[in-house]
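tool=predict chain=A
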Amino acid sequence: MRIHEWVGALSERNFRLFFIGQTASQIGGGMAPVAITFAVLNHGTASEVGYVSAAGLTPLVVLLLAGGVIADRFSRRVVMLSSDLLRTVAETGLALWILFGAPPLWGFMAAAALMGMGSAFFNPAMTGLVPQIISESKLLQANALNSLSGSVAQVIGPGLAGVVVGVWSPGWAVLIDGLTYGVSVVSLYLISIEWISKESKESFFLQLRRGWSEFWLRTWLWVIVLEFSFVNVLIFAPMFVLGPVIAKESLGGAPAWGLILACEGVGAVLGGVVMLRWNPPRPLLTASLATLTWTWPLISLALRAPVATIASGTFVSGIGLAVFGALWTTTMQREIPSDVLSRVSAYDWFGSLVFLPIGMAVIGPIARAYGFTTTIMTSTVLLVVFVCATLTVPSVVKMRAPVHVAIQD
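tool=predict ok
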């Protein structure tokens, strides 16, 4: 198999520049959780780590809808460039503060809030920009490459951060993260694209309302977003709140948990490679079924299975996550008009994340009240119920990928 058949999207200059910048910033983003957590813990507590995380997530959720409108109203490239410039300043500023001082809790929270603000505007704009910088025939492959780079970053970033933190200090790891956003700024600046909004004279709220109308018009879209409002909680709250506790008590501690998470990243890499050449005829059916791969690691975790069993489950679920991500993003980009795509994407992001902070906060007390096993098994059963309910919706099951977008040389 010739290599350009797998990565032909990289032959197009604009997408190649975008891919370089995104790969760099995603590796930096993979370093951030480890680097900032250890920086906070140098002088703080685990609770303060939670406060910093919440400070980043809250503006992300609150500003997503505004970010979607802005991205459709103005140049998406400029919105993304500005967002990454903000994130560069926030992370490099925090890094220098760590290296030459001891930031108080509010300093970490302020930097996290700025990062969340940047992401709120960047994410909807990115969904809308990709179809503008790649040929339609290579759109699925481009999204698969983006997913693949994110998956590789998920494997490389935390490990690199661990080495930098161990050998030098958390401040240097945060600084590297900030500089990777700078790479993205340069890449976005070099992209050549011309785009003029068709609705530049419409009010903010009118544009927001039109985005909602386009979102609500498509049953397949709001049904899956509604599904993931709960599915994200059912997957990620048990895995990332209860999982580390189980690993500490029963599986051998941090090394075992690191292996389990790394296997998810490796699986996601494989899933991204698969999606470079696979274009299933029923993308939403395939994507929804891929979500069920998460039942394996959840059940294994609930039953305190051996580390190898749980890790093999996260490996498979990583494949499923990559398959879902590539197919879902590509379907949205194909089916939604370009001039409203970022707004619709913002509703997708908002709906998918809106309950996650609550889930993260309540899963611990629920597990203490009813037991870890019961809580995780209940989450698994509900996950299956939500996915099966989604598969009863005709527009989800019957959605077909257009033949003319098959990957070409």
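The chain has two domains: 8-193, 203-401. The first helix runs from residue 3 to 6.
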